[in-house]
Amino acid sequence: MKKFLRHLSPVFLLSLLVGGYTSIAAERMNVLVLIADDLNTWILEKPERYSGNVIAPNLQALGESGVVFRNAYSASPFCVPSRTSMWSGVSPHKSGVYHNQTNVAASEPLKTATSLFEVFQQGGYSMYGYGKITHGWNGNDVWDDKQGHKRDPRPPGAPIQPVGAGEQDWGPIHLSEEEMNDTVGANRTIAILEQKHEKPFFLVYGSFNPHMAWFVPQKYFDMFPLDEVKVPDLNPDDFDDIPPLGDEVVSSKRKFTEKVLEAGLHKEAVQAYLATTAYVDAQHGRVLDALEKSPYRDNTIVVFLSDHGFHLAEKDHWQKGTLWEEATNSMLMFRVPGVTQPGGVTKNCVSLQDLYPTLTDLCQLEKPSSVDGKSLRPILKDPETDWKSTAISYLYDQYASIRTKQYRYIRYKKGQQELYDLRKDPHEWKNEAGNAEYAKVIRELNSQLPPVEEMATQLVREGRKKK
């Protein structure tokens, strides 16, 4: 018997140990990662965020089939730093990448970082990516097939809105839905799920929408009659207690917000965002439907996330790029065969940087020691498990925020800070930083942030003014 075993290959011997003659590839889970750009958490039906109707049945059904993270937060509320930190495993406070206008190539930690994609490619996975996946930092090329994102052309005569300019615009698109780039990306993703695979696959689909401008087919606008659209709650006195550096964060977008409100177009803008969200749900839903019909349904980890949130006039702001709830709160859902149970919901505060160590853990791949974040496996198994918040977000040159179940604490510079007690103030309208009753809370939360002197300075692109 021993002589017989010596003539068997190591792979065959391992296959015997893990259960007969099935191949190793058949025993390893595939990974499908779905990403939407600029999608806030209105889908989660959090009344303190948005009380109106949001139509996203496909993504909501995905959440119901696994675990929904109601309190997931981006490492930075801009595309470049959020995606760079998520895929590289390097936190913004180490890389110096806090903003889109960053000299990413100058970051020393990123020069030696190993992307999550490289770990899976080296682990024997076939690699496929379509649409908006990375932004600013790509790591090494590991893709078997890949197509990046591009914007759909603006309708003839754009801007459509009287306040419109550049990407700050919305309206029905002149293209058919089949011609839109996010539809094409979904088609290519579906084609991969319809193929036969000999190796496990890592497949990513990223929709550019609902990034502005909001140009989608008329049928999606029709889903939200204007007289039924609700706008987010606004507080005209919101900035009475916000420090100067916090006020400065929104200064560049305040003028556009004022134009929208003064022109009476707030409902129209919200309608356009909802319409674009519905289009995004339809495309991701087509991909999910293809997975359901494939032989890979029960052997594929599914993750859906958004790279950060989005303001629609809350806090006098439009778009992303703040450390408040609207910009940092991100979508995150997992369905993991054999780990998650349907209907799981967790209020634990987690970071998108936890994605890297979670996926390597679930797929039994070794992550580099430089990777920040923690594996979310304990929460995936038990959404009620105790969890110390990993929800730290960074902005500009050394601004930082931490979110816990009860509080949000923001630290700027020059001693300027904000604290919100979310149990009493879910809209973050009353800054308690000057309230002596919260002094201990502020000290504790501040101690969980990296000291300012240990945070990397922002790497600004040549020709750009430093914020």
Description:
The protein is of the alpha/beta class and 467 residues long. The protein has 17 helices and 17 strands. A hairpin with a 5-residue loop joins strand 9 (311-312) and strand 10 (318-319).
Specify Rg, calculated over alpha carbons.
23 Å
Instruction: Look up the CATH topology.
Output: Alkaline Phosphatase, subunit A
Largest sheet: 9 strands, mixed
Q: Specify the CATH class.
A: Alpha Beta
**Mean model confidence by pLDDT:** 92
**CATH homology superfamily:** Alkaline Phosphatase, subunit A
Which stretches are poorly predicted, pLDDT < 50 over at least 5 residues?
A: 1-26
Structure summary, number of beta strands? 17
The helix-and-strand class reads alpha/beta
The 3D shape can be described as globular
Distance between the termini: 72 Å
* Count of runs of 4 or more consecutive helical residues: 17
CATH architectural grouping: 3-Layer(aba) Sandwich
- The percentage helix is 25-40%
The overall number of domains is 1
Strand content: 15-25%
